Amino acid sequence: MNESTQKQLLEVLRDAPGARATTSKRASTSSIRVSPGGYFAFAALLTFAAAILLRTQNDFAALGLVTGTWILTPILIATDRLYFDGETLFRAGLLPLLSRVISGRRPALPIADVETVEIATVRTLRRGGSVRYRYSVEVSGRKETFVFASGGKKFRQMAHALLGLIADHKLDARAAELRDYLCDPKELNEQLAALEIPTDAVLAAMDNRARTEKRAAIAASPTGEDAERAKALAQAGNRLRVAGRLRESGEAFRRALHFAPRDYWLLYQYARLLRSQASAFGNAQLLARACAALKLSSLRGSEDAKLLERVGESFFEFGQPARAAKVLRRALDLDRDSFRASLSLAEIALSEGKLAHVIHHYRDAESVAPDTAGARMARREADYYARLNDDDDYLSAELRRMNWLEGAGRIQQFAARVSFAALFVALAGSFLDQIVAAVGWAVASSSIIGWSGSLLLRKILTRRRGFETS
Questions:
Q1: Contacts with 129 (C-beta within 8 Å, 6 or more apart), sequence order
Q2: Is the pTM higher than 0.70?
Q3: CA-to-CA dists, residue 182 to 84, 161, 185, 252, 353, angstroms
């Protein structure tokens, strides 16, 4: 084969669909560091053990333990990462390698086996009309669970790459919003400048009258591009809400509603913003307005099953299970194959203690599940609650497990508080009275042992008792 023929063959192979997909897949690999909280907690326990050794005159052992701990811990944190190559989410590093050697398999979850995605949101800081959100994403399926938390560019890349390939019926409202509206702060600021949305400081300085006059001026001069502008403003409002810039988000939504006041999806998104503001600022009136906006959205979009699914989930999240069930049943009337509506109705029935209804809705979800992973999850839940409903001994055992789990959580919280107080007493007592210091060290040691034991007990009790699935 001559050189020109080889070049032609290479060009054909490079342009082939399989080769392009492989190249794209390799180029799209994303990675993020695993949350280091567990490593720091274990390192703190070992450091406390080193302090005990130092107090008992074992200086060399204490020095070796604390040095080894704080040399090894950063290495473990730096190497422990989650990777997503476009098909599989897997964990790599020194600790996962040790787990793989022991168990004989790598911690991995193919995208087709993902069953649920849950988003936990924690407000870490509030300043004026903005809050700082920390997102924790938990992806579960086939006995594997991976968790990663927000923190810069790597989180955005991982969230977009992973959530963008997971089907909508596996994502709740928060996960879908994170997938669609999480963006780079620089890009968001450029969009706000193009849309001429004032900053938080400017909005805080404007009084209500000036804001009303400005909105009236906007509404008084409509153009043929109102729909596109409303869409752009709604996107900016959602991005601002995900970023925690709630006051600016509210201004963007107010402007968008002037251009498209009857858009029911826009009303739904505005209700989600009002719920975020009510939670961040502790305002019950905003929560009532959020429920009213959801109700208006469901009335105007009464023929849109996808909208009603999301409205029903939001009503349940807002603490309105009766309204949520009503809207979700209407969604099922429009679309009998609505997987998310059946799952949400099962959760509502569970909150009301209606086990028979829970089983029924999970069976319905299994029958209409769009893929194998969803059917497997619904079948597992239906079998579990059916066992609870039919077997009194199993129900008693599970109730004991849940009570012990709740008790272990309370003990862990109490032990953590006592341990911090006792450490302060022990350190202060070293300069005042050795008896006080000894009592402080003894109480701290006991409380840390109790904290560690309750943590281990919670890990054991979190898993359900085994049962046979149908």
A1: 200, 203, 204, 245, 246, 247, 248, 250
A2: yes
A3: 18, 12, 9, 16, 36
